[in-house]
Inverse folding.
């Protein structure tokens, strides 16, 4: 099996190298021979996907076949590992992850090369760039991180198993989503660089890659949020975002990708920001590479320590090379990117996009700076410092709030110039409503002057409300216009409105989702927690809820042994649910893992939902009683609901616009022929 | 000055008169009531006037300057203004107009100064409120609150990469020990800095969850704001530069509507494209 896999990877590398070199040569000529060479390069690229797919298939098959002669399978699987996790073995370790990267890239390249007739020349350039990236990743899996390396000595009877942290349903889908995001940005990057090199006229490359970019952004968003949910539901510390370097690494391309999605609108509508858009998509691709590098190299200590290795040098060389190539072509072709920059007013959609981009980039810089500052400190001061949550919360949160303000204001500003009357019309009610939300919070006991975190919570609530009110008002206003003309009911009219401009209204839905996510986050300062060793019938009071230990028990299955507690949750003396927090002991790896039990109180608290989050921390060996830690986390479920709405909004924006078909009615025309009138 | 003169012309004439005496900012963004020389004169007059018997007016006019030994001879050479309060306006009107004129002139003068007075008072109230909030925020926190605060400013050293109070490893040797140390230090009454220093000495600088505001570590805090400021300056410059670019030349006979007409076209376009 290992031989087939290794051969397939070698073949994929050879095909990719050929695709790159032949494709590159073909770009220099315009004769028939060059065209034929280009065609062979395209077909080699397509074939490389088949070879990488075969290698990935062999690795997964080896996991299912418990082939522990392959070192990777021995280190990341065991006989009793459930089937879903055996499938996830492909991306559970370093070598498999890089193979997965190569597979996704080859897959995207495959689709791209099949659709080459859209614009053969531009696709040829993009194909060469994609082949170059493919060569890098296939070199890695053939030379530096071989997934089919064999065990030294005899073949072990069983594997050491998958890291317990990764044995969770979301772990099966979180890495693929994140990788789809990282890898997907290669496509708009390749088209942008290709368009720059060949002086491609107009904005067609943006139109071609718009959907790629949005889908990629959506995958990255899902990947990030699934990671956050995994941290929340598995790590058992009651939080979902710890500003870990690897979390930061995924956030950075998301921020620049978001900036790119907004600023390309400026190029499409007004022919502005051509250089800036190039820089943004280059930066996004480079940050995606950096994210993979940070996750895989382990140069910065992280909770993702399971992924560390010594392939950092390869990434540093490739990232440096990419920066050099991008900078060279950008400087060389600067004149080609001259824009038609003309602004009429500071209060316009254009300037809001500029400030939106600025704030996104400042947050990105802050995250990058904070992530790498420990290394810088070691160089300068001779010792590392920790740059943890207090730093990021204090620096990034205020800028993020400004960004929320722009999210509310920006979309409702008119292109070119916004009149005072229009500002009043669009913002009077949303402003009154959002200020009322802030006042309500103060009335109900949130004192923003007592603690900066309360201040930020109130500000976040006000700004989220502003975003929601402006979005709702925009839908209502547009819906009323259509309802007035067509006689449809308001809901049908709003649906029609969305179908006629999916990108715009899909974008509003995404903004709505973002506001819900922010609402979910702003509950953090009001978290409550309690810890107690619990005998039968012991209670923990947490806000309005009382947790009563009904029982504790033990169980066993082939993969792990488990201790769990049965906790009844009461509200106002009435039982509302039962929670089963667990602590597992994985047999093959010998590692323990908590499995918190979570109950979102929608039925009891409605919109002001709380997560009742109970962790079985362990057992007091003397008394045999469980130690239970309980958290009451307000509003957290809104984060996951916000994600669903963001994804829904992106899907809406991907749907082509509905264009009403108007057919000219044929009316017979009676003509009278006068005899003798003609000649 | 003629009866019935509106305040605007009154202000203009007054400012012209003052300009002739070297007071150029008398009427613009500053006050109706002129600067120190006349104020000092009003104060002197107030001592003997009927209004000066009003303790509020008297204290208002006497307040500050004379009690603090204000040097009026120096002030007379200083072309500056002060902001008028209501009693000062009333006094100024009383000094210059007959009893019949006073009500009209007083209303006009107060209307002119009124907005400024309201805003000044609002500002004072705001400052006072802020001071109270700052005072409340500065009140010493309880030991529990300090434990929570300090526990979130340090990292657990077991290698989990989590904030001290968020390390959830049962029986974690590091976090349990550190929590106990923190509680002991708080019980001893040590201040926050001393406690953090103690932890740094024992566990090294990486125990602090964020860079301290000392030495090179300051750079960590400053750089994001420098980036923001530089970005804001750059974007503002770009916006201004683009705004000042000349319009592209139009073919003969084509004109772009401006102002209200342009807004009308835009509204129409918006309505039509929303359908």
């Amino acid at each position: 099996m290992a031989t087939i896999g290794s051969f397939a990877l070698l073949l994929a590398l050879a095909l990719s190298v050929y695709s790159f070199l032949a494709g590159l040569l073909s770009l220099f000529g315009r004769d028939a021979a060059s065209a034929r060479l280009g065609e062979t390069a395209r077909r080699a690229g397509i074939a490389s996907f088949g070879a990488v797919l075969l290698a990935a298939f062999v690795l997964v098959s080896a996991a299912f076949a418990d082939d522990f002669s392959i070192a990777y399978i021995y280190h990341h699987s065991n006989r009793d590992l459930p089937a879903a996790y055996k499938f996830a073995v492909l991306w559970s370790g370093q070598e498999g992850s890089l193979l997965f990267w190569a597979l996704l890239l080859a897959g995207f390249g495959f689709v791209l090369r099949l659709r080459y007739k859209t614009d053969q020349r531009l696709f040829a350039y993009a194909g060469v760039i994609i082949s170059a990236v493919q060569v890098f990743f296939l070199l890695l899996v053939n030379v530096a991180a071989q997934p089919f390396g064999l065990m030294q000595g005899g073949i072990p009877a069983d594997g050491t198993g998958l890291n317990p942290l990764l044995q969770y349903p979301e772990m099966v889908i979180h890495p693929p989503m994140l990788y789809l995001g990282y890898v997907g940005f290669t496509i708009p990057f390749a088209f942008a660089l290709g368009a720059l090199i060949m002086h491609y006229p107009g904005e067609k490359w943006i139109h071609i890659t718009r959907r790629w970019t949005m889908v990629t952004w959506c995958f990255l968003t899902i990947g990030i949020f699934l990671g956050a949910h995994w941290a929340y539901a598995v790590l058992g510390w009651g939080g979902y975002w710890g500003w870990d370097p690897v979390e930061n690494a995924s956030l950075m391309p998301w921020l620049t990708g978001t900036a790119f999605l907004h600023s390309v609108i400026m190029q499409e509508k007004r022919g502005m920001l051509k250089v800036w858009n190039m820089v943004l998509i280059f930066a996004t691709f480079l940050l995606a590479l950096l994210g993979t590098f940070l996750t895989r190299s382990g140069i910065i200590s992280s909770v993702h320590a399971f992924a560390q290795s010594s392939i950092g040098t390869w990434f540093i060389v490739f990232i440096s090379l990419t920066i050099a190539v991008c900078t060279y072509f950008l400087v060389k072709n600067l004149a080609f990117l001259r824009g038609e920059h003309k602004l009429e007013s500071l209060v316009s959609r254009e300037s809001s996009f500029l400030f939106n981009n600025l704030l996104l980039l400042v947050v990105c810089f802050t995250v990058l700076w904070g992530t790498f500052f420990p290394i810088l400190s070691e160089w300068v001061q001779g010792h590392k410092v920790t740059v943890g949550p207090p730093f990021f919360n204090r620096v990034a949160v205020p800028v993020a709030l400004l960004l929320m303000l722009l999210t509310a204001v920006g979309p409702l500003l008119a292109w070119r110039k916004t009149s005072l009357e229009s500002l009043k019309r669009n913002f009077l009610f949303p402003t009154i409503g959002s200020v009322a939300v802030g006042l309500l919070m103060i009335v109900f006991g949130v004192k923003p002057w007592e603690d900066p975190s309360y201040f930020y919570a109130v500000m976040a609530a006000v700004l989220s409300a502003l975003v929601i009110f402006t979005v709702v008002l925009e839908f209502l206003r547009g819906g009323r216009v259509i309802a007035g003309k067509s006689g449809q009911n308001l809901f049908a009219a709003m649906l029609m409105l969305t179908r006629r401009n999916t990108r715009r209204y899909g974008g509003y839905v995404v903004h709505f989702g973002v506001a819900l996510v922010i609402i979910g986050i702003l509950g953090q300062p009001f978290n409550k927690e309690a810890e107690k060793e619990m005998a039968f019938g012991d209670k923990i009071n947490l806000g309005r809820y009382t947790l009563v230990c009904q029982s504790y028990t033990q169980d066993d299955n082939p993969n792990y042994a488990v201790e769990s507690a049965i906790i009844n949750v009461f509200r106002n003396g009435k039982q509302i649910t039962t929670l089963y927090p667990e602590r597992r002991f994985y047999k093959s790896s010998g590692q323990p893992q908590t499995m918190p039990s979570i109950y979102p109180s929608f039925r009891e608290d409605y919109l002001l939902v709380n997560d009742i989050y109970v962790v079985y921390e362990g057992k007091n060996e003397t008394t045999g009683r469980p130690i239970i830690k309980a958290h009451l986390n307000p509003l957290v479920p809104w984060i996951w609901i916000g994600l669903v709405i963001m994804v829904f909004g992106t899907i809406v924006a991907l749907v082509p616009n509905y264009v009403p078909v108007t057919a000219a009615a044929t009316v017979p025309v009676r003509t009278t022929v006068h005899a003798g009138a003609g000649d | 000055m003629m009866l019935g003169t509106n305040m605007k012309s009154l202000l203009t004439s007054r400012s012209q008169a003052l300009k002739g005496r070297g007071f150029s900012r008398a009427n613009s963004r500053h006050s109706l009531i002129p600067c120190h020389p006349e104020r000092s004169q009003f104060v002197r007059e107030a001592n003997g006037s009927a209004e000066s018997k009003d303790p509020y007016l008297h204290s208002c006019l006497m307040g500050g300057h004379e009690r603090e030994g204000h040097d009026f001879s120096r002030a007379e050479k200083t072309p500056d203004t002060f902001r008028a309060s209501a009693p000062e306006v009333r006094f100024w009107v009383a000094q210059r107009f007959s009893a019949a004129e006073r009500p009209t002139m007083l209303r006009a003068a107060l209307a002119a100064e009124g907005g400024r007075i309201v805003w000044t008072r609002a500002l004072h109230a705001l400052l006072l409120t802020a001071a109270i909030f700052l005072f409340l925020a500065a009140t010493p926190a309880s030991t529990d609150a300090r434990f929570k605060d300090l526990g979130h400013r340090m990292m657990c050293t077991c290698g989990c990469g989590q904030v001290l109070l968020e390390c959830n490893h049962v029986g974690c040797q590091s976090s349990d020990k550190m929590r106990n140390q923190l509680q002991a230090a708080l019980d001893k009454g040590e201040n926050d800095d001393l406690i953090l220093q103690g932890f740094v000495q024992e566990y090294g600088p990486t125990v602090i969850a964020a860079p301290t505001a000392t030495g090179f570590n300051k750079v960590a805090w400053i750089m994001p704001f420098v980036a923001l400021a530089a970005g804001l300056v750059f974007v503002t410059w770009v916006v201004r530069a683009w705004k000042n670019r000349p319009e592209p030349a139009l073919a003969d006979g084509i004109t772009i509507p401006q102002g209200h007409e342009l807004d009308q076209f835009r509204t129409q376009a918006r309505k039509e494209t929303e359908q």
Remarks:
- Chain A touches chain B through 63 residues (CB under 8 Å).
- Residues 125 and 194 of chain A are 5 Å apart (CA to CA).
